[in-house]
Write a structure and sequence with these properties.
The complex is a heterodimer of chains A (482) and B (101). Chain A is α/β, with parallel strands linked by helices. Chain A contains 16 helices and 11 strands. In chain B, 37% of the residues lie in helices and 4% in strands. The chains are: A alpha/beta (482), B mainly alpha (101).
């Protein structure tokens, strides 16, 4: 397999005629054909539609047009992003056969920028999980070691980029679902500030936490994709009414004079080899002229508990719409209530049922204030804790995950242990802040390690400048990508 | 506030509210698993946070209104085509009257 080419390089080569979009697509499809049988990154490969898009890009180049920032770049979409007329399953049986009547805003923006959509990627059912094992269609395998999980819930997207099936994938991140699989698969994964990327057409899991973001092979590609998909969208009432982001242009500005805080709590939660890589990343920041200090934000310790009350509570409400009436699966029964119950009981898998019940319980009479209400107050405390840290620091640094990729099957029987995989990523979602995972060497088992940078709301510029420094350090160390 | 340990009856009740039918095996399994998660959440439930305001949404969001102007929206035929059962341009469902509460 040839080394991965960045989306930036591919788009430039296609725009100036050095490469054709159709040839580039065929190269990626050949890799998919050769290896996805084993990896199972895709639920669906949209071969014909992709070829039509690529052909159109080549024609636009030939006629002297500017076909966009992502001209001819193959992009894989997590299967919870609506694609008009193309099955969108959320890896759930309950959406069996559903073809959305509209495109997600991010899909429209990618297409307008010349991207070529190659398919829909496997995921944990309704994005609930950390290993892609809760998919109704079977697990995705980690390209670095096929006995291991790719992480989740955007495991198909992370595996697709890691395996060279596409240079770019989109995922969604509710509690770490972009960053955790990116770390486990050795790719870059970014969760933007809540509200900077439209959620219109993203099938809702926990609406106050969900955010779409890129998985890529380089930090510059993550910046490029964020610039393309970000910006205000009137179709999403939580979309921030601000100018579209422009982060790619500031990537090379360095971090001289910045303060990088190494987050004590995240170090305490991680394995020794992951901590060692994180400390090396901190040294790289110091070498690039940043002031590095260790900082404690004790409130983040409460994040996991608060998240596993808030996210299920929102999910129990969002997933009420799967009732067998308007789309997807219906299991017939004598009356509507029985039909609703039969449909949901057959259509949802175990993890989705657990979360719906947990959320319903947390919102039920007598427990709402003790659980959901308390969790919302904890959310305030976490935001205050981060605010205190950001008065001293420009960015925070820590591991993305406590460990490298675990074995398939190792945690499925024990949901609480699975939930702990997200302990370092969840606090960011509760705060609405941006964060990014950057591949940084490997662990004692030879598998990829991801380090995570966190920044205040809307500080994507700072976040990505620091990420570029860490990426360069990983490259000079060698073995950042296998 | 005290949070008693989750029981099998609690799970059965909640499953009914959520329109889920659980087998006996599922009830046993989920009761144990959900109790572990709620035990972990006890650290949150037991904190004294009476003076802390709740945050439902990290970014300040207010209700968004737009002018009520006609425009193209999703196509009705395309929406109905996705439904399991349709009659006279409407979603068709089994009977809803006379059922148990």
């Amino acid at each position: 397999m040839t080394p991965p080419r960045s989306a930036l390089d591919l788009a430039a080569a296609i725009r100036n005629g050095e490469a054709s979009a159709v040839e580039v697509l065929d190269d990626y499809l050949a890799v998919i054909d050769a290896h996805d049988g084993e990896i199972h990154a895709f639920n669906l490969v949209t071969r014909d539609a992709a070829r039509a898009q690529a052909t159109a890009i080549d024609q636009r180049v030939a006629s002297g047009e500017h076909p966009g920032l992502l001209a001819g770049v193959p992009v894989a979409l997590k299967d919870n992003l609506c694609t008009r007329g193309v099955p969108t399953t959320c890896s759930s049986r309950i959406l069996d056969g559903w073809r959305p009547p509209y495109d997600a805003t991010v899909v429209t923006r990618l297409r307008e920028a010349g991207a070529v959509m190659v398919g829909k990627t496997n995921m944990d059912e309704f994005a609930m999980g950390s290993s892609t094992e809760s998919s109704a269609f079977g697990p995705t395998r980690n390209p670095h070691d096929t006995s291991r999980v790719p992480g989740g819930s955007s495991g198909g997207s992370a595996a697709a980029v890691a395996a060279g099936f596409a240079p770019v994938a989109l995922g969604s991140d509710t509690g770490g679902s972009i960053r955790q699989p990116a770390a486990l698969c050795g790719v870059v994964g970014m969760k933007p500030t809540y509200g900077t990327v439209s959620r219109y057409g993203l099938v809702a899991f926990a609406s106050s936490l969900d955010q779409i973001g890129p998985l890529t092979t380089t930090v510059a590609d993550a910046a490029l994709v964020f610039d393309v998909i970000g910006g205000h969208d009137p179709a999403d009432s939580t979309s921030l009414d601000r100018p579209a982001p422009r982060v790619l242009s500031v990537l090379d500005e360095g971090i001289q004079g910045m303060t990088v805080g190494v987050l004590t709590e995240f170090l305490e939660d991680a394995d020794a080899d992951v901590v060692a890589r994180t400390r090396q990343a901190a040294e790289a920041c110091a070498a690039a002229g940043a002031r590095v200090e260790e900082i404690s934000v004790p409130e983040v310790r409460l994040g996991l508990s608060a998240y596993y009350l808030i996210a299920p509570a929102e999910a129990s409400s969002n997933l009420a719409r799967y009732d067998g009436v308007r789309f997807g699966l219906r299991v017939d029964a004598e009356d509507t209530t029985a039909m609703n119950t039969a449909t949901r009981s057959v259509g949802f898998g175990a993890e989705v049922k657990r979360r719906i019940m947990l959320g319903t319980y947390a919102l039920s009479a007598g427990y709402m204030d003790a659980y959901y209400g308390q969790a919302l107050r904890v959310r305030t405390k976490i935001i205050e804790g981060f605010a205190r840290a950001y008065r001293r620091c420009d960015v925070l640094l820590g591991p993305t995950t406590p460990s490298t990729a675990f074995s398939i099957g190792a945690k499925v029987g024990d949901p609480m242990t699975m939930y702990l995989s997200d302990v370092c990523t969840i606090p960011t979602n509760l705060a609405g802040h941006p964060a990014i995972s950057i591949p940084f060497g490997s662990g004692d088992d030879g598998l990829p390690v991801g380090v995570q940078l966190l920044a205040p709301a809307l500080a994507e510029n700072t976040l990505l400048r620091a990420a570029a420094v860490i990426e360069a350090a990983a490259a000079s160390m060698g073995g950042s990508r296998s | 506030m005290d949070t008693p340990r989750l029981t099998r009856d609690d799970v059965a009740h909640v499953a009914g509210l959520a329109r889920l039918h659980l087998t006996d095996e599922e009830l046993d399994l989920f009761t144990g698993q959900l109790a572990v998660v709620l035990d972990h959440a006890a650290d949150v439930a037991l904190l004294d946070l009476a003076d802390v305001p709740p945050t439902a949404h990290a970014m300040a969001v207010t209700n968004v209104l737009r002018p009520d102007t006609p425009g193209l929206t999703v196509d009705r035929a395309e929406v109905l085509a996705a439904a399991p059962s349709v009659e006279d341009h409407r979603f068709r469902v089994p009977r809803i009257l006379g059922e148990a509460p």
